[in-house]
């Protein structure tokens, strides 16, 4: 199937890559300064801020 511009639909036309490969060394150096536990706490805190009505247990399930 093709879209209105004649491009194929679907993942077959997507570029598969990791963020590390796509964004380079500066991304790696900035992202991997935190431990996995610190990263979890940052994500958890951010989700609590943007989802004030969400139960903490639901956020924990989402992050697993």
Secondary structure elements and their pairing?
Blueprint: H1 19-23, H2 25-31, H3 36-50, H4 56-63
- Rg (CA only): 18 Å
What low-confidence regions span 5 or more consecutive residues with pLDDT below 50? none
- Distance between termini? 36 Å
Mean of pLDDT: 87
Largest sheet: none
**SS field, number of helical segments:** 4
How is this structure best described in words?
- This protein has 64 residues and is an all-alpha fold.
- The chain has one domain (17-63).
- Helix content is 55%, strand content 0%.
- The protein is built from 4 helices and no strands.
- It has helices at residues 19-23, 25-31, 36-50, 56-63.
- α3 crosses α4.
- The longest helix is centred in the last third of the chain and has 15 residues, at 36-50.
- The mean pLDDT is 87.
Summary, kept brief:
This protein is an all-alpha fold. Helix content is 55%, strand content 0%. It has helices spanning 19-23, 25-31, 36-50, 56-63.
What descriptive keywords fit this protein?
about 60 residues; mainly alpha
